[in-house]
Amino acid sequence: MFVKAELANIRGVDLASFDVIYICPHRSELGTLIFRRRHTPPRRALFIELPLCPSHGLVEFIRDELDPRQLQDDWLP
């Protein structure tokens, strides 16, 4: 299962529903892996499309939105 969402629509997304998360430049199908659940095949993927001019610190913002209590260790540097 692959889901693509715009940055504005990630609030309320359940992180447990995905094995991998990618961020993609505006209108691109290629992405950068930012989250991967260990010991799980990447069957459920979320692709987050960034705005045309992304701001500095956007990856940290995404982490805070999807994992506000920072309970997951699977975020990639």
Task: Explain what this protein looks like in three dimensions.
The chain is built from one helix and four strands, in the order E-E-E-E-H. The chain is an alpha/beta fold and 77 residues long. Strands 1-4-2-3 form a four-stranded mixed beta sheet, with no helix packed on it. Strand 2 and strand 3 form a beta hairpin. The longest helix has 9 residues. It is globular, with a radius of gyration of 12 Å. The mean pLDDT is 90.
The number of distinct β-strands equals 4
Helix content: 10-25%
Q: Which term fits the overall shape?
A: globular
Low-confidence stretches: none
Order of helices and strands: EEEEH
What does the average pLDDT come to? 90
Largest sheet: 4 strands, mixed
Strand content: 25-35%
Strand order across the biggest sheet?
Answer: 1-4-2-3
Radius of gyration, whole Å: 12 Å
Q: Structural class from helices and strands?
A: alpha/beta
Beginning-to-end CA distance, first to last residue = 25 Å
Gist of the model:
The protein is an alpha/beta fold and 77 residues long. It has one helix spanning 58-66, and strands spanning 2-6, 20-24, 32-36, 45-49.
Topology:
Blueprint: E1 2-6, E2 20-24, E3 32-36, E4 45-49, H1 58-66
Keywords:
77 residues, alpha/beta, 4-stranded mixed β-sheet, globular
